[in-house]
Amino acid sequence: MAGRIPPQxxxxxxxxxxxVELIGGRIQLRKGGKDFQARCPFHDEKTPSFTxxxxxxxxxxxxxGAHGTAIGFLMEYDRLGFREAIEDLARRAGLEVPTEGxxxxxxxxxxxxxxxxxxAAQLYRGQLREHPQAPQAVDYLKGRGLSGEVAARYGVGxxxxxWDFLLSRLGGDPAGRERLAQAGLIxxxxxxxYDRFRHRIMFPIRDRRGRVIGFGARVxxxxxxxxxxxxxxxxxxxxxxxxxxYEVTQARxxxxxxxxxxxxxxxxxxxxxxxxxxxxxxxxxxxADHLQVLLRSAPELVFCFDGDRAGRAAxxxxxxxxxxxxxxxxxxxxxxxxxxxxxxxxxxAEGQAAFEQRLQKAEDLSIFLFNQLKETVxxxxxxxxxxxxTALAKPLIDKVPAGxxxxxxxxxLAKLTDIAPPPQGRTxxxxxxxxxxxxxxxxxxxxxxIALLLDRPxxxxxxxxxxxxxxxxxxxxxxxLAQLLDTIAVSPTINTAxxxxxxxxxxxxxxxxxxxxxxxxDTVPVEGRAAEFIGALQGLSKEVRDAERVRPLNRRxxxxxxxxxxxxxxxxxxxxxxxxH
Length: 581
What we know:
- The protein has about 575 residues and is an alpha+beta fold.
- Helices cover about 50% and strands about 15% of the residues.
- Strands 2-3-4-5-6 form a five-stranded antiparallel sheet. A five-stranded mixed sheet has the order 15-14-16-17-18, with helices on both faces. It has a four-stranded antiparallel sheet with strand order 8-11-12-13, with helices on both faces.
- Helix 5 crosses helix 6 and helix 19 (about 445-455) runs antiparallel to helix 23.
């Protein structure tokens, strides 16, 4: 079970993460002054109000109020939990996420299942070298052009014929047999248990952390089914997993492209020929969960299918799954192979360079979309053809997130049909409506000081020259300000994002995020912010001194005041009157 992630690790992770690169991989950013701008991905807008600051490592939308760090962006944009966002950033940085302290609440402990699956994978690998039947499997793999090196990289193994290879080795007691059953490695019929995989070449399926979660198996000979996957288990869900993704991330630290194919042997054969960025779905159509994983992994996806009717039908299902996630910021393309060919046979026939030339000619999602629809409609120019094309295309285009890409698809449809699109009546989303209804409020002195400090943590150096009377104020905001200054004193180079992220579990986290992008900051020139910060602290210190000076007077009857006390109170009343006017 996972424990608490050390704050120091989160600091280091944010320091290694470039928020501009992270967000730029998902939405199109343009340089605007010292920051980067885009149309906000969290609400519908015509003009860019979304800014990303490389200096602060922070994003903010002036339209809807969305703001946060790289962690916050992944949580909102990719719909990840906090820990998932940390793990995603850590994977990009090549780091392992450490834990400390007491374990956090979690679901069932699946460690025994991972352990038995790993043991099974090791046994299968051993049988590929040692079993008397193994030469048949080795000959098959060599016939498919696979070397021992690439087979070892993917952990390929062999399940011998017979009913109890695994059962006899890992199921010696009731607990062991139960683990094998839960892991999908044995099955039961007529009250008898036996190995699920027999006389098959075994392909271990790993999750993104490298743990074996299931197997794909190819029969030797004419047995049925030809290919067999592990059943759904507590750790294996074929609609979420992609074969080979772990091996791809091990081979390439930074992924520029992922090629999605239909079979494990296709992915391995491509790796054999230097195309080591191929992954395979597991006997199922591409799902929305697959797309979420793929889009988080690389800026370009190429789906590779056979050119026959079945291949195009599978490609269409992938397109339908991709539409709700298609923003135009990541390339989604479709490659159709000559009939009778698959990636395995084609790359062996023509080699890496020629195959990658085909990838350059893959169809963009929009081209594939309209080509397929035009083929369905037939005549799209005369008669009711334009209306039929529009009727088919509009529901699909409407699945695309609102923004430039959807507008582009609508414009292309209008050009094809010569039917003007309806005016885009953009409505403000909930975030924007909330932002528009909020009335600007004047910040207190302590809030101003916090906002300025979050904007420019280096202002903390100004404090050393000032009296710290303000620290005696009994005010929660003052306590936060003091803690922020103490944090910066320990980490002088800390930036806005890291400083704010330290408060994620604190009740004031949301308020601090808002202060870090408060409109008040826009009213203070950059060159005047140090003076404004000093002035805020001096004002707070004066409040303390004034309160402490008046406190003794408040405890005595006015009849007991000395003349000096009366003069002091008169002076302060006059100063207050002048400030009001």
